[in-house]
Design goal:
This protein has about 280 residues and is an alpha+beta fold. It has 2 domains: about 130 residues, Alpha-Beta Barrel (N-terminal domain of MutM-like DNA repair proteins), CATH 3.20.190.10; about 130 residues, Helicase, Ruva Protein, domain 3 (Orthogonal Bundle). The protein contains 7 helices and 11 strands. The structure holds a DNA duplex (14 and 14 nucleotides).
DNA sequence: ATTAATGTTCAGAA
DNA sequence: TTTCTGAACATTAA
């Protein structure tokens, strides 16, 4: 599901919209319940129409269009949302479109099967407030080791659960959290305050390496096939997964133990009890 | 036919 | 303060 690598792939996939002018914003015909769009679509349309897209950025797991007015149009894919410029996986779950002029791309689309995604337009000021409100920690690709240690060390929360907390570090989700801890050889249930300095070093190093590598593979498309890049092609990082969704399979690192699945904080965690000891 | 499971975020409770 | 729980929603597998 869209975590940092998948959202970064979406961002890169639609970069060609930079410099284009928005002609109209609209909900697209869709039989499902409407997704959350704020402010309401007619107001949003009025504010973005005729405005140029200055840049396409990423904020954690969100794609952010910076407009020449300073407003930010934010796409939040959550579980199954996709930001794309090519053919969507189907018309039935197409939720939103931006008609574009003055560039090589005619339209930007938001497709979302489950409909948990959100689209929000913020003023420059509201966006700055959002950046300062503490809800998002440093980006996972940017955070330094000392920053990471400082933001995690004092917590009693299990390290796997803490990695999912976007206010500590932004961008890691359920899939990559398991992969990171496996590569770092740290047990997912270890309380943050019990994680040793050299373990933080490995977590930090593998977090950035894994996310970077996954970006190069255009993210992970899981068995349900939902996640796609901006041209509606699947990613390929799923073929590199060591533990995620591999319960019962032999660990490819130690070639001995079978991958375990446990539930932490109501979500699946996968790990190898041989490679990842407490 | 029903129920559980899927994973992200936020509001509200503990 | 910090952590936990449930709800938002659609689809598939059991």
């Amino acid at each position: 599901m869209p975590e940092l690598p998948e959202v970064e792939t979406m961002r890169r996939g639609v970069l060609a919209i930079e410099g284009a002018t928005i002609e109209a914003a609209q909900r697209t015909p869709c039989s499902k319940r409407p997704i959350s769009i704020k402010p309401r679509i007619d107001h949003l349309n009025r504010r973005v129409s005729g405005t140029k897209i200055v840049s396409v950025d990423r904020l954690g797991k969100r794609v952010v269009l910076r407009l020449e007015t300073g407003d930010r149009l934010i796409f939040e894919p959550r579980m199954t949302g996709l930001v794309l410029i090519g053919n969507p996986p189907g018309r039935e779950h197409l939720r939103f479109s931006l008609a574009l002029a003055d560039g090589p791309v005619q339209q930007l689309l938001f497709w979302d099967r489950r409909g948990l995604g959100r689209i929000t337009l913020l003023t420059a000021r509201q966006y700055q407030e959002k950046l300062g409100d503490g809800s998002l920690g440093p980006d996972a690709l940017e955070i330094t080791l000392p920053q990471m240690v400082q933001r995690f060390q004092s917590s009693t929360t299990p390290v796997k659960v803490a990695l999912l907390d976007q206010s500590r570090v932004a961008g890691v989700g359920n899939l990559y959290a398991s992969e990171i801890l496996h590569l770092a050889k740290v047990h997912p249930g270890t309380a943050c305050k019990k994680v040793r300095k050299n373990q933080w070093q490995r977590i930090h190093q593998h977090m950035q390496a894994v996310l970077q590598l996954a970006i190069e593979h255009e993210g992970s498309t899981l068995s349900d096939g939902t996640y796609r890049n901006a041209l509606n092609d699947p990613g390929s990082y799923q073929n590199q997964h060591c533990v995620y969704d591999r319960e019962g399979q032999r660990c490819s690192t130690c070639l001995a133990a079978k991958i375990q699945r446990v539930v932490q904080s109501q979500r699946s965690t996968f790990y190898c009890k041989q490679c990842q000891k407490r």
